[in-house]
Amino acid sequence: MGCVLNIGAAGPEPLVIKESYKSENGENKFVAKGLSLELINLFASKMNMTPYYQEPVLGEKTEHLLKLSAMLILGEIDILTGVFPLVKPVIDLAEPSAPMFIHTLKYLVPCPKRLMKTEKILTLFHLSSWISMGLVFIFVSVLFWILSNYPTRRNDFTGFSLLAQCFSAAWAVLLGMSVPQMPLSPGTRSLFIIYVWYCYAISTVFQAYFTTYLVEPGYEARFETLEDVYRAGLKYAVADTMEAFRKLVDMKELEVFEKETITDGVEVYRAVMFMRKTFTTVTLIYPMHLARLSGFDDESKVVCYLDESLVTWSVGALLTKGHPLSQILNTHIKRCIEGGLLEGYWSKLKHETNLKANKTDENSEYVVFSLTHLTPLFILLFVGYILSVFSFLCELLLFKKSNKRIGSLKFKQLSILADLSVLEESK
């Protein structure tokens, strides 16, 4: 047992990690570790000192940070580490150590969602392409009817004599079905073969992309600038500590956004990543660790940033003014950073987090085509059945109505004939 080194720590994971356990006497105890504490723990072990931790504060609540800062200024703790940036307002109150790592502030925005399969299929062609195909379909059908009813047509050809038959035949060719009767005249045959090759080309392109988008429909467009975020109507989510830090950085562009205040910074990141209704400013390390805790091996599925970086600052430990261990601790931190010890610990921590996390089902890069991908086709088939039944019922009603009209006309004719016969007999 050496001298006691009083340490205070505050910040979200992975900067500060608290692991609770019960001792042999049944007492509740904890072990403090994390990126901001690893080098200090090594320092205490090297200097044969006993680290005594104030209970770590997980998160970024302002009152907790102010409480620990006051304890450092009053000399109740020797070292304070965690989320504290090495900026002028902080350095004026305490003795800064050598930087342990660099934080870069960026805009955290919701990641693009996977597109719905039916939505992607509808946008397979541009609206202008759909309109042009519809116009070609109408034009060819009408042209079939005109050519078939031209005065020089063959008398034995009846498959295209009605306009409805022409539309039905053109629709059958577009769907790759056979027509009820082949055209006979040279002009109609020429138009027919041109239309068949046109439909074959359109169908080939459509089927190729159709199958691709059923399996992998793709993602929405990602946010690239604040203008994209503003057009999407996202709110700016901020915690108390973020708001205090934002006042130190010029961020006038955020004044146009509606603000949503959340107590804890971690909940702010969680809301952006999973609720997808807000955006925020954040350093890169926190949401990446949160994604791994949530079971995502690939953080890019839920962690997305705008391209621009706002500000960069150093993070380290704070000591009381004139502390005798200041120079020794700085030398220790510099040598550990140069030796890659902190990077090694960060890699180990990420691996441990992956092992402990509950795995989340992520969309694999390779997707097996199955019946579930045919859901849009069955929906279209079901809609087609409904329309077919509706058209059949309409035909029945029209048929009955026409029969009644014909019956009434026949009845009138018979009654007139009967009256005429009666008149003739009377004469």
TrEMBL record:
Cellular location(s): Cell membrane
This protein's UniProt keywords: Cell membrane, Glycoprotein, Membrane, Receptor, Transmembrane, Transmembrane helix
Keyword Glycoprotein: yes
UniProt cross-references to SUPFAM superfamilies, sorted A to Z: Periplasmic binding protein-like II
Domain of life: Eukaryota
Membrane-spanning parts: 122-147, 159-179, 191-210, 377-399
Protein topology in the membrane: Multi-pass membrane protein
Record bears the keyword Transmembrane helix: yes
PANTHER family: IONOTROPIC RECEPTOR 20A-RELATED (PTHR42643), IONOTROPIC RECEPTOR 40A-RELATED (PTHR42643:SF30)
Protein name: Ionotropic glutamate receptor C-terminal domain-containing protein
